[in-house]
Structures are given as structure tokens and as C-alpha cells.
Amino acid sequence: MSTSDLRYPAASGGDSSIPPVVTPHYGSSLPNPPSDVSQGRPTRCATGVRFLKTIHGILNIVIIVALVCVIISAGVVSSGEARAADDVDGDTSAKVSAFHTRNAVLVFSIFGLIAMLFDTIIHVTKLVHRLPAIFDKIFIIVMLVLAGIYLILGCCAAAWEKKMRDKLGPLDALSHKGAAASAAFFLFVTMIATIVDFVLRLLNRSSSQSYNPMTALSSNTKYYKEAYSLFQQCTKNEDRQDLANKVLDEASSSGSDTSKITRACSREFEQLMPHVTTPSILASFFDRLTQDELDEFIRDRAASFVLEKLLTYLPNVLSTESERVHSSYERLFECVRENFNDYMQESGTGHIIASTIAFLHPLIISPNTNEYESLIDGGQTAKKFAELSSDWNVLDKLRQMKKLIKKCSVHNEFVYATLLRTCGYISEKLYTKLVTHLCEKYYSNINVQHLLDKCSSFLFEVLVEFPSNQRETILYPLVFDQIDEIYLHPIGNFFIQRLLLTLNDKKVLEKIYQLLIHEERFGKLVHEGQIRLLITFIRVCERFSCHYEELVNRLKTTIHCTKNNTNEFIPCVLKLRADNADTQLITKEGSLVVQALLRADKVDSLTRQSFLSLTGEQIASIACHPSGSHLLCQLILKSNLWPILRQKNFYEKLNQMYTKMACDKAACWFVTQLWKSAITIDQKLEMAKSLAKDLQILRSHTYARFITYEMNLTAFCSRPDQWKRSFETVLKKHSLLDELDDDNDKRKKKKKKKT
């Protein structure tokens, strides 16, 4: 729970406006899923290289080797020697012709060798899927007939060998007398191997090994592993989403073993799932899991996290896939209900029970929100929940869960807390009963250690979220009295943060403010406490207009910013918690605090004045830092201070810095945002003139060349008047559209007032 847990910049897949600190181009093509199921057909044995490892592949190799030996054995005997064996006088019981036997053995052996080589090649190369289904049966029948012929030829070859022995005798001058015996032996080997191979194929049911595009990949998951490896290389959200859609769509198709594949690639699927943008894919994935497979998922620790992630993102598809999700959820709920006690006793399965309960009041995850955006937002944006129809029987399911929890001998705080929170949103009566039961059975004497405990803190974070007698009479007074012990504690700071985010009573915030603003406490909070708590405290005070200006001034004093020098406030905050303030320009913590200050509806005078006084060199140095580039992009995109800065001389300050920033890996994103946010032709001209001086350098630079394309600098240098006219036209169109939007907003407001 330390600040080192924060990863910055934010993970991709959230706010698309957050510039990744990587090259903005990805040239590799995305992998295509294997061929469609409709283009294949069932086969009686494995295909691909895996065929050689099966019993059929091994027997094929045995048959090929045996037939080669037969051909060699029969071939070493010339036709003249065979005729000589037939012409020599002698007594023998063998009535076969050595000449005709030799020729028949060679012909049928060569035919069999060609057939087996053909069979092996079409299975290894998977060409067998392009042949009609009747081909398998015909080929099996032909080979079984051929096995019978080999039996006859083996007997004939044995008779041929006897004939030569009887007629010529052991002292005969003819060579290769043992060739007939060798041919007979290998013919019998070929016959036995052929019968075993093709009888097994005949007994195999095609449906049991029906062709799947993922055959040979389902077991070793090669396709999914490679797809995830490519996913990690993608730098564009569009590429990530396209790849995630393809992979999950393939895994949830009717020809795939969704359960088996997911359990084998749980880590990969857990990372891919947040990037799936097609609603039907997630619904199909959930719908493919039977109740038994869901039970296997929950008991499999790795696969259970995939299921939990799936339940997190399914609320986003309820508007279009409600029926399928409902039927799938019923199977999951029934599975959890039947195995509730087992899951509660097993380690690591409680979070699935919690996710199942939470889905009864499904939270819609915004695609433009991530961990850091939620932190900087500070609870300003209200959460959105999907509404479930009466068919879901939500209250009935909550009552069933309540009974199961009461009967269960295992007390899982996280599961109980999730049930409490869900009931708090849906049923006040049920929530009150659960709180009463909780306090009577487990927490009859609540103390500060309960708030600081890793497990029980889940419960008390919920108790401060919804109104109850226990919250007003026990928890609030306990927090006020024990604030020193709580706010710096690794778990207690999360409890205070949760309390601040769920507050709706300004009087309580006033008391907490008076406690935390104390000079010594606030100093420890700024320099030692969890940065999340400081940011949340700043944002909540701003939202409730609770001594916000005073808080910012106290922050200035605490970070030892010179009282008379307001201009240095932002640079000082950016160095917050720096190991070496002289060399370290920006810290992760400082960047987050400045973002919190900039996100205010009305930016305080100290922050506004400090930003206005920044020089071009200072802005450029901030932009060249990854965290600083992200900060400045957020300033342009989401801060109410940006329109004020844009009207001032912000663009003019950077006149000599554009080339330097355009060639920097981090700052190039800031330059791009500056270009897009310029609303006057003069601002665009300033940037174009400054960058046009170094056009050749910019065009050859890895990062800057994309900015030259965006600004069309080549056209500016060759045809400046035409360039100016085209951008003036674009700006006029944008201005007209903005005016239309403003008019529509005004009309909507008037209608609301009339109603």
C-alpha cells in the first residue's frame, strides 16, 4: 500500500488522451485467427506436426520403413534369377511362380509406399481438411484390402523362398537366396501394422476429433501465447482492441473449448479482457461456460481471476446482451449457491462470491477512466450503475445470500462487505439488518484496531458509506478521536480516503479538515503520508468549498515555498518528495498533486498565477519529462485553467522551444496537443513558423516527423497562402459547430425550466 505501488503513466486502455511515452507508431500487422470452422471438416486423427507423435503417425512410419525393406529385398533378385528358380528341375511342394511373385511384391509394395507417403503428407500439412469426408473411408477400405494382399504376397514370398531352397539347395551358385525370406518377413510386418493403423482409424469417431481452427493450439495454446506477446508490443489502443477482440472471439466460438483454453491461458486472457470492445464477445464468452465449468473456474485460482474480470466488464454490455448475460448469470449464481460453504472454506475463492453479489447492482466501467483518472477526479463524477429488470429477482437473491452467510461458519469480511454495499444501494431495510447482525455477532465493541485491520477494514469502509446509527454514534467519533493513529497508517489512510470520497455531510468534512490542517499533521501528510489521501483531501475540500484557498496556501507553506515568490509555487509542488530537489525537476507524487489542483472547477488564484508566470524554458523542461508531458496534456484537455492560459501569451512563450520539444520522446505529445487546441490562425501560424525553420531536421527525426505530418509543414513552406486558407476554413467550420452545440444546450436548459 506504499506509494511505490502507483504505476505512472496510467495503464493503457483507459483515457485515450493520456500520451504513452513510446513511439507513436506500430508497424507490425496483427495476427489473424486460424481458418474458419466452416472451411474445415472432421478428421479421424490429428493433423499437423502433432500427427507424427500419435499412434497413427508412428504406424505410418513403420509401414513406410517396412515397405522400403520389402522393395529392397525383392529388388535385389533379378528377373533372370527368378526365372531360373522356376526353370530348374527339382522336387518341391511350392507351386508358386517365383518370377510372378517377385513382380507382384514389387508392384504392390511401391503402390503401398506411395499411398502411405501421400497419407502422411496430407495429414502433416493439414491438406486432408480440403478433401471430402468420404475420402477417409475410401482410403481406409483401400488400405485394408491392400493389407489382405500383403498377407497373400507374404505367403507367396515364403513359398518362393521354399521353392528356391528345395530346387537349388544350399550349395547352389545363385546369389540372394535369402531375399525371398526377407521380403516375406517385412510383408507380414507391413500387413500387421496396416491392419492396426486403419482399423483404429475406422473405430475412431470423427465427431470426437472434429476439426477446429485451434487444433494443435488448444493443448499448448500457442496461438494465444503469441497473440498476447504481440499485444504487449502494441502502442495504439486501436491495435490492442482489435487484437483482443479477435482472440476472445476465437476462444468463445462454438468450435473452441472455451473452458480449457481459458484455464490454460488465464494470465493472457485476464490482460486482454479489458480491451474487448464488442459486447457480443463478452456475452458469448460467459454464455459458453456451463455450470460445471464455472465450478472448475472458481476452484482454479488463476482462472477465477479471469471470471472476476469478466464480471467487472459485463455490466457495460447489459444494454444489448441482457438476455444472454441473465441466463449465464443464473448458472453462476446457482453454482455459487450450491457450493457456497466449500468456496468460503477454500482459500482464494471468496472474491468470486463477492463479484457474483456485486453484479446484482452492476457498476458500469467507463472506457475513459483508469486508476489515476479516478484518483484525480476525487469523487466528482458520479458512478453509473446498470438497471436490472424484475426478472433478475435481485432482492430475492440478496436474501438468499444473507441466509447463506449467516449459516456459514466461516466469516469472510470481504464477501460480507460486498453484500453490505450491494444492500446499501438496493434495500435500506436489508442493509440495516445486516449491520445489526454484524455488530452483534462480530463487533460488539468497535475500536480503532478494527479500522486498521487488513480484513475488517473492508467492512468499516462500507459502514461509513451508508447512513446508520453505528456510523453516526461510533465510527465518526472514533475517527475524530484517533485521527493521529489512523491517517498515516498503511490501511488507515485508505479508510480515511474512503470516508472522504463518500461524504455528503459538510459538517463532518469541517471537523476532519480542522484535524488534518494542523501544522504538524499536515506536514506529515504532505511529506510522509499516502499521496492518494492528500490528493483526495484536496479534491474533496474543493468540491465542498471547504477552506480550499486556505488549504492551498497551507500546502505552499508546508513545501517551503518562499512566501513572497508566488511564481515558484508550481515548480516547488512538482518537486514534492524529491530525493534531490536541485537535480530532480519532477516527481510522480508532485505531478499528481498539480493535476489535482488543476482539475478544480475554479482553479485557485495561487495555482493560476504560478502557471501564468512560468517561462518558456520552464514549460519546455516540464514537457520533456514523461510525467510533466502527461501533466501538460491533462492541463490542455481537462483543466478550466487552459482557456485562460491560451488567451494569454502561452504560445508566444514557447516560440523558441517548439523544435526542442518536438524532437523529445515525451514532449512531442505536448506539442501535438498544443497544435490541436489552437483555436486561432495566429496561434497555428506561430507554431508553424517556428517549426518550419528546422523542417529538414524534423522530417528526419523519429518523433518530430509525425508532428510535421500533422501540421502539414511541407505545404506551409512551399505554399504558405494556400496552407493558411485551408486552416482558416477548418477553424471556421469548428467555430460554427461549437456555436450550434451552445445553442442546443441553451434550448435544452430552457425546456427544463419550463417543465
UniProtKB/TrEMBL annotation:
Name of the protein: Uncharacterized protein
Keyword match Transmembrane helix: yes
Keywords from the UniProt entry: Membrane, Repeat, Transmembrane, Transmembrane helix
Signal peptide boundaries: none
PANTHER family: NUCLEOLAR PROTEIN 9 (PTHR13102:SF0)
A biological-process GO annotation: endonucleolytic cleavage to generate mature 5'-end of SSU-rRNA from (SSU-rRNA, 5.8S rRNA, LSU-rRNA)
Residue windows of the Pumilio repeats: 477-514
Superkingdom of this protein's organism: Eukaryota
SUPFAM superfamilies with a match to the protein in the record: ARM repeat
PROSITE patterns membership: PUM (PS50302)
Region (Disordered): 1-41
Stretches that traverse the bilayer: 58-79, 99-118, 138-160, 180-200
GO CC term (a single one): preribosome, small subunit precursor
GO molecular function: RNA binding
